[in-house]
């Protein structure tokens, strides 16, 4: 089947309760990978006066979803998922290298490396991840999206479902960062999350349609703010 018309056959089968719970578990902000300690430039945006209220926070995060996640992390997860499931380790390594090379600041690279290493250690608790695969992961400087794809590879979930779960987990983390950094109340946070939830399916479809030559990591304002955040005098988050 031509890759431009390829459909993930797993979408034809409804995800079981166990499979759904596994995805929810994997996407949970409670997973011990340290996601709660990063704001991905949002704290710097608040400090610079770009994000001062609920409306601006929602606007910022919706644009970040479409301009960064949908064009970089989400397509890499989909492509890594296929590679893990077919045992194409060369492809996994290439995708992991691409993510490392395209992190636009030191702190954004440190974030994906730290979360990737933490997820690699957590995967040792999952019986479906074979020791040989973990040995291969030890040869990488693992990025979080690529290791997330490995964690999901043993499930029955389709690519679309894996990406939806990842994006919603990201949205929860970023909403919580906005509550602390702006700051905002819990009701504001839920309204922001509701807006992101409406946008996530569109971002996922965009990501699934991308090929290698279409992926990109180019968000100049976010990169500048992230660079400033590295030396910001007072901060709550590591990015």
Describe the structure.
By secondary structure, the protein is mostly helical. The chain has one domain (39-229): Urease accessory protein UreF (Orthogonal Bundle), CATH 1.10.4190. The protein has ten helices and no strands. It has helices spanning 17-27, 42-47, 54-86, 89-102, 106-123, 131-137, 144-153, 159-181, 186-208, 220-229. α3 (54-86) packs antiparallel against α4 (89-102), α3 (54-86) packs across α9 (186-208) and α5 (106-123) runs parallel beside α7. The radius of gyration is 17 Å and the shape is globular.
Tell me the series of helices and strands, N- to C-terminal.
HHHHHHHHHH
- What is the CATH architecture term? Orthogonal Bundle
The quaternary structure here is single chain
Overall tally of domains: 1
- The count of DSSP E runs of length 2 or more, i.e. the number of strands, is 0
Instruction: Give the CATH superfamily.
Output: Urease accessory protein UreF
User: What is the molecular shape?
Assistant: globular
Structural class: mainly alpha
Mean pLDDT: 90
CATH uppermost class: Mainly Alpha
User: Please, how many helices?
Assistant: 10
In whole angstroms, how far apart are the ends?
42 Å
What name does the CATH topology carry?
Answer: Urease accessory protein UreF
The low-confidence runs, each spanning 5 or more residues with pLDDT under 50, are 1-12
Estimated helix fraction:
55-70%
* Largest sheet properties: none
Percentage beta strand: under 5%
CA-atom Rg in angstroms: 17 Å
